[in-house]
Amino acid sequence: MNIVNILISYIVFPGFLFAAVIGLFITWIDRKVTARVQMRVGPPWYQPYADFLKLLLKETIIPEGASKTFFLLGPMIGLVAMSIFSVMLFSMNFNPESSFVGDVIVMIYLLALPPIGIIIGGSASKNPLASVGASREMTQFFAYELPFYIVLATIILKAGGTIRFGEIIRVQQAQGPFLYSLSGVIGAIVILLSTQAKLSFVPFDIPEAEQEVMAGPYIEYSGVALAMYKLTRAMMYFLMPLFLISLLWGGLTNWWAILKFLLIIVLIVLIKNTNPRLRIDQALKFFWVGIGTLSIIGLILAFYNL
Amino acid sequence: MANAKLWGLKKSPWVFHVAAASCNNCDIEILDILTPRWDVERFGIVLVGSPRHADALLVTGVLNRKSLPRVLQVYEQTPKPCLVIGVGTCTCHTHIFEPSYNVVGPYDKYIPVDVYIPGCPPKPEAIIMGVVKALKRL
Amino acid sequence: MKKEFSKEIIDEITTRCPEASVKIHAPRRVYIRVPREKVYDLAKFLYEQKEFRLSIATGIDTREGVEIIYHFTFDQAGTYYNLKITIPKDDLQTKSLATFLPAANWIEREIHELLGVDFIGHPNLKPLLTAESWPAELHPLRRDYADEHKNLKMKEKSEEAL
């Protein structure tokens, strides 16, 4: 594969540009459904693209005394990680031979980079409210990653002990998706709630609670850097349900995958609209005590092939 | 290219609310326009939590000796280009509060205001019309 | 509890302070004029033994001096017992109630900066509401402030013209 092909696949399809455009569209679906549930007319379809273009127009102000490199580095980490993740996800779904041993671990690592970018950016702005937001993001990160890893161990166990992403998809296409079993249902619930927390949606939008820490870690960002943060979150919104479908519901090669994807988006939006915000200690207890025991039960059930 | 960016600014103005010692009537009306009856999100207007994310500052209240340095600080923290919209009659001129010991001039002396929306408090339809007029001037 | 002022309280106040003149304005509003030196003991008695609550204190500049009213309320009957004192203009000081009443702390700071009354024994008599750039010896709520206000405005206009 020559260098031009590689560059095009990373930047245009299915890398950065593809995930960015469709990710921004998914945020529009979210806002429109939220508006309809609240009995109002929502924004028009080009709204997220107008937001992004407008943010590129504004000037980027770097606060005095803030560390310049880390202030501008924070947004870039998440964006680059999500582009690579998108390429890996799509190429391994449609071409299972291209996966290598241990690539599920690499994908989990790439998914953990955007919160680290938020923490770096929030700590580098010289603002006490931003550090409070960054520390809350750190605590929440510890909370939701633990059950996620236990569920991943469950999935590896059910796939027969292999840690190749392509293998997991191939096993599901041969045997039937993992969702149609009790441990699979438990895994789906846990991954759905972890997605809600990773995307900082209510009830877990504790780091950027508007009434408590005005905009949390993003408080000093403006212009291009803020646009990158919003774009990273839009891409995560698009890619994480696809990850869930690939791990548990049979992969993306089927045309039914679009319906499954829309169902997961609708579930996320419904949870987002019907719940109040939790406190950070309540969220920690929820994820470690409640969801953690649930995921361990799922692991034990998978051990007995249920 | 400049046309595309200007289109973006027109279609999605993010709003930050600066309440400089107002009687809170205009603040309640500003809160009203986000509710489903006069839904203002269809113009792309979102209430943001930090002045660094804002395109338009909604200012209310008479300018005070004590709130003057703070309003100036918020105006400087907003990235340009930004609109300043004065909501309520208190921002147009000091009127009946002129002889008070704590009042310093109208807003025009210190920050450039783009649109004034008179009314005490202005109806939500008037606020929407004022914001749309300010956007059309861009 | 009957929604009216209670005669026992007024009798106790007049026994403690015979120079008090009581005026009953309405069934639930009582105004008691006391001399300046007695208000500390009366307020202490009302607050600590009868468990009254200090609602607010108000002040005004009159010809006889600065009048301060302390509004004490008895919440169960919904009645207000207001203690009125007059401070002569050439000796603007009185004993502060903030030593035992936490509610009087901020309101006495406000009366001090707006009317110029000095409260002896107040733990923290700094300006509360005026701006940081306001000169501390200018008291805006006095009757003769109008002339100083004109001087201040002309001084600011000339500074701007420069």
UniProtKB/TrEMBL annotation, chain A:
Database matches in InterPro entries: ComplexI_Subunit1, NADH_UbQ_OxRdtase_su1/FPO, NADH_UbQ_OxRdtase_su1_CS
Main subcellular location: membrane
Coiled coil: none
Organism superkingdom: Bacteria
Membrane topology: Multi-pass membrane protein
Provenance organism: candidate division WOR_3 bacterium SM23_60
Location of the protein in the cell: Membrane
Name this protein carries in UniProt: NADH dehydrogenase
Taxonomic lineage of the native organism: Bacteria, Bacteria division WOR-3
GO cellular component, one term: plasma membrane
Transmembrane segment boundaries: 6-29, 70-92, 104-125, 146-166, 178-195, 231-249, 283-304
Keyword list, A-Z: Membrane, Transmembrane, Transmembrane helix
TrEMBL record, chain B:
Molecular function per GO: 4 iron, 4 sulfur cluster binding; metal ion binding
Extent of the signal sequence: none
Database matches in Gene3D superfamilies: 3.40.50.12280
Domain NADH:ubiquinone oxidoreductase-like 20kDa subunit: 23-133
Keywords: 4Fe-4S, Iron, Iron-sulfur, Metal-binding
Cofactor requirements of the protein: [4Fe-4S] cluster
Family, as annotated: Belongs to the complex I 20 kDa subunit family.
Protein name: NADH:ubiquinone oxidoreductase-like 20kDa subunit domain-containing protein
